Target: chorismate mutase
Amino acid sequence: MENKKEMRTWLDDLGLDHPLVIAGPCSAETEEQVLKIAHELKDTDVNYYRAGIWKPRTRPGNFEGVGHLGLKWLQKVKEETGMKTATEVANAAHVKLALEHDIDLLWIGARSTVSPFIVQEIADALEGTDKIVLVKNPVNPDLPLWLGAIERLYSSNIKKLGVIHRGFSTYEKTKYRNKPKWQLAIELQRRFPDLPIINDPSHITGKRDMIFDVSQTALDLNFDGLMIETHIDPDNAWSDAAQQVTPSTLVQIMEDLKIRKETDAEAEYNSALDNLRAQIDVVDNQIIELLGTRMKASDGIGALKKQKNVAVLQSKRWNEILGRMVLEGQDHGLSEEFILKMFKAIHQESINHQEKIING
Model:
């Protein structure tokens, strides 16, 4: 896929003085619910009103959406509020119905992005459309798979394209519902700076009280907009209750977010500097998380050594690690002095952990 500037044109044509905002309920539940939320959002920064019509759930038996009936409710939203509408499509039949009901923005969900067959089916059904089409990252952290979906759509003569970063599933337990793995989104921006990228803090966090912080990080990383799930009664939502906010909370989030505006050379410099600092913050958090994981492994080693009455310090093993890390560091432009200092500190913390286990 070539780096085509027309992919950003649709976003520039909106003429926004703030990031693009896509908001609305995770699921369309009733006509009354859909319209009430829409009327509360119509005079805010929201540009597209979203609602899930077809809801692919991880396991059967959960609420899987109201189906095409919800599209008529979205038509009423447009008639009564003038807001543009958005929903997820997962196959050609969904596409046909969404286009028939004049949905303005369609997105392909994370579970669909993982399958080139599904993406191709959707691309064929959308061929030549002037609707905006956004692609969520696949559930697994696979950048080529994500870009491959965009390429399939672009090859079908769909020019109003963009991506949604909603985080990645992981087996390990973390504070996120889906780990953001910001470095993948950063790499995508580096390769295709003219491809609009929207952040979905609702699915990344899974918790409404974390949405602001993730949204701010996304804006600091020069994301173009946000998709935030919004409900009049979040606690009683039929799906993903914990991650939805009220319309008034959404308004407050948008007021509190610090949004950089590039108006002159100094602002451009500050924007670039803030972006690089945000990338450093992301990596620093990853370093701390990895060190925590390493120390858990050290605790396990300490328990084994206690069981077998083995000494904490194993000089041969330590020297092997040090030599290997010095060579690895050189490959990444890191000095031997720095590597030695860093790993000696890590080694000492590991010893402290093991001694606590053994002495405990």
Remarks:
- The chain has a mean pLDDT of 90.
- The first strand starts at residue 20 and ends at 24.
- Residues 265-308 form the longest helix (44 residues).
- Residues 199 and 226 are 5 Å apart (CA to CA).
